[in-house]
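Title: Comparing notes on inverse folding

I've been comparing how different people in this forum approach sequence design from structure. To keep things fair, I'm posting one structure and asking everyone to reply with a full sequence. Here's the target:
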């Protein structure tokens, strides 16, 4: 095992892990940050989405050895008070059913809106396409992203 220093939610954190350990497991098992969920383990569902240097990425596919010096934001770091515009819109629209995928959905939506603050319906649909919701709350998710866009612009 090697020692790695990561910047997670603005704080420097040192962890010991095998070089190929996915960030997902470092976050959950070493740093006790369990908001990021395990979904499929192959980068297809989006439940494990975090921000890496502001971009939405699948943490199950990122080896810890590749992350030194890079800024990582998890759902816990998006907003201490839970008042990020995307989180507020999620509450207003009452998006979640089971809620399992929602952290990943929110992280994808917030990174998308950072790069495209005034999206149209098709752009929202395309941006959120890679995140799977087993409850099929896609219409509410898309509506919440549109509402969040009005709160960020």
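Reply #1:
Here's my take.
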């Amino acid at each position: 095992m090697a020692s790695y220093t990561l910047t997670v939610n603005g704080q420097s954190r040192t962890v010991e892990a095998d070089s190929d350990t996915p960030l997902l497991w470092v976050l959950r098992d070493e740093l006790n940050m369990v908001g990021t969920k395990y979904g499929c383990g192959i980068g297809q569902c989006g439940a494990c989405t975090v921000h890496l240097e502001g971009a939405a990425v699948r943490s199950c596919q990122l080896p810890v050895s590749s992350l030194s010096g890079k800024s990582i934001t998890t759902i816990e770091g998006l907003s201490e008070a839970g008042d990020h515009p995307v989180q507020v819109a999620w509450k207003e629209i009452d998006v979640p059913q089971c809620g399992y995928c929602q952290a990943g959905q929110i992280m994808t939506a917030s990174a998308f809106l950072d790069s495209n603050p005034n999206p149209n319906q098709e752009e929202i649909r395309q941006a959120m396409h890679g995140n799977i919701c087993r409850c099929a709350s896609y219409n509410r998710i898309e509506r919440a992203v549109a509402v969040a866009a009005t709160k960020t612009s």
